[in-house]
Each structure stands twice: as structure tokens, then as C-alpha cells.
Amino acid sequence: MEAVNIEDLRQLARKRLPKVLFDFIDGGSYDEVTLRANVADLNRIRFRPKVLVDVSQRSLETTLFGRKLTVPIILAPVCSAGVFARCGEEAAARAAQRCDTTLCLYTASICSIEEIAAQRQTPYMFQLYMGQDRDHARDLVERAQAAGCFALALTVDTVVGVSATRMFATATWSRPGSCHAMSSTRCCM
Ligand SMILES: Cc1cc2nc3c(=O)[nH]c(=O)nc-3n(C[C@H](O)[C@H](O)[C@H](O)COP(=O)(O)O)c2cc1C
After folding, report:
1. Fewer Cβ atoms within 10 A, N terminus or C terminus of the chain?
2. How does pLDDT run along the chain (189 residues), one tens digit per residue?
């Protein structure tokens, strides 16, 4: 099956991934109220077609923290991409490079900061979940800086762990609030 839209990609992922992983990436927290609201908001956005207008000089270029991007899209931090596909973060880094855009690597990644840097000729962003261990946070930031990351995204909405209800309804995994990937030896850069 060739994917032509997001729903096709969703169905491909549903076929390929174990149910618990599909539910993690496809589901939202608690009753998924915010997830539905976000989808409804995005569905309200329309492209404005330009007909009988000279569009030969069009450009989607934009600037993000002083960096020029060919398209106004970056890959958002989506933790554990390396769980969904082998070396998923490295693949994402290469894909972003091919599209001349950037990605934001996340704290709970499977591939390391340095492995991602090795996949790219251009710098990327790093997202930090700052836990109570400030030395660990400092170490991550210093490594991101040494790897040439050009911006730090500080995520501050995780004061309490969220419950991915759909996922935990079917899984016998760890309970909500425990950070599944953080304990991996290769994770956290
Ligand atoms: C499965 C999943 C994992 C995510 N992991 C992270 C993360 O590790 N760090 C972070 O700052 N945001 C994380 N996010 C939030 C996304 O980066 C993004 O801000 C959010 O999904 C809203 O964008 P959307 O409406 O396009 O989904 C995650 C989102 C999803 C769906």
C-alpha cells in the first residue's frame, strides 16, 4: 500500500506495530479530549488556492532561531521513535536533512545526541525534560551544545505523569508516570 495521506500512514503503522505501540503514538491522554480538539482545530485550516496568479517565484522558506528552513515544518519531539522503528531517530534525522529542515531530538530518545549529530550536516534542536537530577540535565545540555544543537526546547508541562489510557487498557507494561525509555542505557543521549 502506498501512502498518499496521513490516514494511509496511520493504517500502515497500525498494521506494522504491536498494538501497544500503535496505541501509544496514536492515542492521547485520559479521555483524549485534547487530542480530538487538536484534530478538529487542524481540520479547520484550509489551503488557499492561487489560480491565474504567477506562482513561479513562490517560496516556503522561513527562519527559526536564526536558521533558514526550506519549509516551515520541523519534526517535533516524539519520544521513543527508536522504539517504533530500529534507529528511528537516526532515520528521522536523515529525513529532515533531505527535506532541508530540522528536527527536535527529545530527552527520552533511543539514539544518542552524538549519533543524531553524525547523521546530519546541519544542526538540530534538543528538547529537555528537566528532572530533579540537575547534574544529569546539565550533562545533557552540555552534550547537546557540544553536538552543535542550535536551540533548546524546555518542556514544562510534565509536572505530573500523564495517563495514556488507551495504551494502558491493553498493555501489561509499567504504569502511567513511569518513564519507559529513560532507563535504557543508550537513551537520554
Ligand atoms: C507519542 C508522542 C510522544 C511525544 N513525546 C514528546 C517528548 O518526548 N517531548 C516533548 O516535548 N513533546 C512530546 N510530544 C509532544 C509533541 O512534540 C507535540 O508538541 C504535540 O504532539 C502537539 O503536536 P501535534 O498536535 O502535531 O500532535 C509527544 C507527542 C506524542 C503524540
Report:
1. N
2. 889 999 999 999 999 999 999 998 999 888 999 999 999 999 999 988 889 999 899 899 999 999 999 999 999 999 878 888 999 999 999 999 999 999 999 999 999 999 999 998 889 999 999 888 999 999 999 999 999 999 999 999 877 766 667 766 665 544 443 333 333 334 444
CA of 76 to the centre of ligand 1 (A): 6
Range of the domain at 145: 60-170
Q: Whose CA is nearest to atom 28 of ligand 1?
A: 78
Asked if residue 184 belongs to a domain, the reply is no
The protein residue with its alpha carbon nearest to ligand 1, atom 8, reads 79
> In this structure, is residue 119 part of a structural domain?
yes
Q: How far is the CA of 77 from the centre of ligand 1 (A)?
A: 6
Flag whether 32 is in a domain.
no
**pTM for the whole structure:** 0.83
Q: Which atom of ligand 1 is nearest to the CA of 106?
A: 8
Residue whose CA is at the smallest distance from ligand 1 atom 26 = 76
- Our answer on whether the CB atom of 29 is closer than 6 Å to any ligand 1 atom is no
Contact 125, 150 (CB under 8 A): yes
Domain count, the chain: 1
Whether the CB of 187 sits within 6 Å of ligand 1: no
Pairing of strands 67-69, 62-64: antiparallel
Residue 9 falls within a domain, yes or no? no
